[in-house]
Amino acid sequence: MTLDTPNTPTANDAPRAAGAVGVDGLGCHAGREVMLEAARKTGAGETLARYAKDYPAGPHDQPQSMCPAFGSLRVGLRMRRTATVLSGSACCVYGLTFISHFYGARRSVGYVPFDSETLVTGKLFEDIRESVHNLADPEKVDAVVVINLCVPTASGVPLRLLPREINGVRIIGIDVPGFGVPTHAEAKDVLAGAMLAYARQEAEQGPVQAPRSPRAQEPTITLLGEMFPVDPIQIGGMLKPLGLAVGPVVPTREWRELYGALDCAAVAAIHPHYAASIREFQNAGRPVIGSAPVGVDGTADWLDEVAKVCNVSADKLDAAKAAMLPAIRAALDGAPIKGRITLSGYEGSELIAARLLVESGADLRYVGTATARTPWSERDREWLESKGVEVRFRATMEDDIAAMDEYQPDLAIGTTPVVQAAKSRSIPGLYFTNLISARPLMGAAGAGSVAATLNAAIGNRARFTEMKDFFSGVGEGATGGIWPTTKREVG
Ligand code: SF4
Question: Residue limits of the Nitrogenase/oxidoreductase component domain (predicted)?
Fold first, then answer.
């Protein structure tokens, strides 16, 4: 059966479906305000207003790293039985497919190409519609995700007019423009939130598919945010003495896990920037707690919060703490981090990683995150500031480099340009995304997991100084291909 019902049509949709407004010349170079204005005029105003509320901007409101749409693309590509299609300029799609395969995507990225004519006549929308119909084979997929990049969003390509469902396959159309979603971390939430909203409506209408593995007998805690696979296991061990179990991690790896995620006792916003997902959980009546069980203080506070929202008795809470905290303390003491550090990143897990570093003994001076301050990051911010750490939300690359110059750390952990800047100053640098956020952080496994890497990097400073001396002047100024004056003509 084909349910050819549009997602959420509005009175103004028909003309736009027939012919998107002619803004095909727009791209990154057009500037944020021009793109925003075009998108508002072509019908994306409501979506952009919601993004502005969910992902508040300022002082840093533009991505300074990868295209934000990568976050949504990654979430789609990591889900079983899900087809993901991009609608955008070929250069954007090239970059996004490149980075998704660099990060190990194991399936194809769909692409519906366009040119000026198909964009302005509305043919692009018809092409997307056709591709969605072609992909919606219930034998192969549970869902088809279509992601509008900058130009189709600004041009008003109305994905909300796509069928909501084709032959039982869910169709999810989302706008993820760089001028409306500040970071790729927040773009993960755009898709996760859209899927949760869809799944919640399904669950409200009747029975839904059971999870692949048997459900836990105990009430569960859903975890919000991508994390190292060992972390949910660690958290499960902490919850057991409380009479609770760990639930699915959102973004999920399969559609049916969304129902299990919604059917929980509480939600742990391990990554605090999942505003749209949190809204869906709150609409489903689920309490949400912030922070994460990192280090001794973090784990004790987090267990207190879980016990409070789940009405767990003081006896059980004491038993859980007695089972976990001494082991975490021993692991932290056994792997101290020695040195002054600045830390920054754009994953949304910077504050909890920072807590772990402080509890490991590091002299941490600064934490910058490209994500926004939210109610769910408040406890981590307060704790870090109470330890004398400067915390900056929506930090720019310039903020991160300025902090490095101010605090003169033994190690700068950050994004690629920050690490580059550190190395050019003979300061050892480590990339946050690959070397810190892709490690266990929770419980006893997290305590000590990063110490060896960080201490080894700190110990490398002499090599950096030696290299800087050796390469001094190479690639700088005129030797970097930049000539301050025009060469004199010879002849
Ligand atoms: S889709 Fe991404 S790469 Fe393309 S213009 Fe927008 S922000 Fe830039």
Answer: 67-455
